Amino acid sequence: MNTNPTEYRLEGDGADIQSLPKISLHDHLDGGLRPQSLIELADELGLEVPAADAEALRAWFTEQSNSGSLVEYLKTFDLTTAVMQTRAGLSRVAREFVQDLGADGVIYGEIRWAPEQHLTRGLSLDEAVEAVQAGIEQGLDDVQALGRRIRVGQLVTAMRHNDRGLEIAELAVRHRERGVVGFDIAGPEAGFLPARHRTAFDYLASQFMPVTIHAGEADGLESIRGALLDGRALRLGHGVRIAEDLVIERQDDENTYVSLGPIAQWVRDREIALETSPSSNLQTGAIAAWGGELVDHPFDLLYQLGFRVTVNADNRLQSGTSLTRELALLSDAFGYDLDDFETFQLNAAASAFLPLDDREELAELIQDGFDEA
Where is the Adenosine deaminase domain (predicted)? Predict the structure, then answer.
């Protein structure tokens, strides 16, 4: 981890945010590479990189990602995926990814990635999934050897602008007993509604495979509606534009009175988790309708209204962030305290793609860890 834990202490009681038990539901494998590892992997494959120094490369990613556009933001992944085309490359990235989660205080993480983007050097879809799982298991051993507790699952992702949805859904189901816990679609959101992959979602429903869908990030309510109806999504990847279905009726010095449209009402009342990623949402313009600063993010409004909000890093390399840092930024913006942080983690535990008993165990670990903070 490049993050110094001493930088992130909670105002008031001074709690070390990094040491708190956390859950990561929305974190992309190809968005979490260590810059030095990327340089070394590129050198092995004879690929050019924009900077030969790790810190300079880190800065390049952050600069390129601050575009205000999801489409431009996604272009940085051409470089990261290029070094993740071999069994060794995928395993190394996955192993280090888990190590970094552990260092960030994560006790349960779901790693999402799109196997169809990692086949240019001869791997099959199944071989790619197996390579990532091998790296995850090595990373778990590394973290546990340090006396930390962590569990990790794969979210196999299909690219929404391609036509391999059913094939990737079948891949996810094949590996559900070997590390895969759920399915996702990602990529350019606007113009590629979930209905495009309806056959895949029908198949996943028949197999009782949990689904989360990127929706409400680069597109609005129609995309969210499609995720819920066509995709049967149990969680919304980002989902921040659900706030477009809220109407502020009036405000006074102490209160804001809000009415919910039908989609927002459904999402809140059914406790469909919002996988918000504050820094990423600023970089991609997902919250542009409300402003350009973190304090403008609808996160707090959604939280106060009772939505099941969760906090995530999305892409740690592109956003120059960690889950610890995202929590610290939200605390600075909205004055959150330890109880709020605990609520966010309990929300995530309740929404994890795990059996009920395992989710309850996670909740107990979170409560115990916060009681000790």
Answer: 21-367
